[in-house]
Amino acid sequence: MEERLEQGSAKVHPARDVLQSIAQAPTWAVLWLVGVSMGLGLVGAQVGTLWVLVLFSIVWGVTVLAMLGWVARWFVQHEGGGRHRRMAH
């Protein structure tokens, strides 16, 4: 039996789900990814083997996405209340 998607139903997008879960990573996970990325970068610079550089590139890319998600979440949560956002009397 063939399943049909209705016009208004959401389609499955695995890449979007992965990006959303990376962007929703908690602060400790982002810091952990930064540490692992720095460590792999230092090891990759000394060893020079291709698989370490590939692993560093993948971890670095995930780290950048997680950091961008964390910064965006921080800006949304800390919006308002500044000195220049008050109403003038």
Fold and architecture overview:
The longest helix has 28 residues. It is flat, with a radius of gyration of 20 Å. With 89 residues, the chain is mainly α. 66% of the residues lie in helices and 0% in strands. The protein starts with 13 loop residues before the first helix and ends in a 12-residue tail after the last helix. It has a domain of 55 residues. Helix 2 packs antiparallel against helix 3. It has three helices and no strands.
Percentage beta strand = under 5%
| Helical run tally | 3
Compute the number of strand runs: 0
Order of helices and strands: HHH
For the largest beta-sheet, the strand count, sense and barrel status come to:
none
Shape: flat
Helix share, percent:
55-70%
List segments where confidence is low: pLDDT < 50 over at least 5 consecutive residues: none
- What's the alpha carbon Rg, rounded to whole Å? 20 Å
Short summary:
The chain is mainly alpha-helical and 89 residues long.
Keywords for this structure?
single chain, mainly alpha, 89 residues
List the helices and strands and how they pair.
Elements: H1 14-23, H2 27-47, H3 50-77
Helix pairs in contact: 2-3
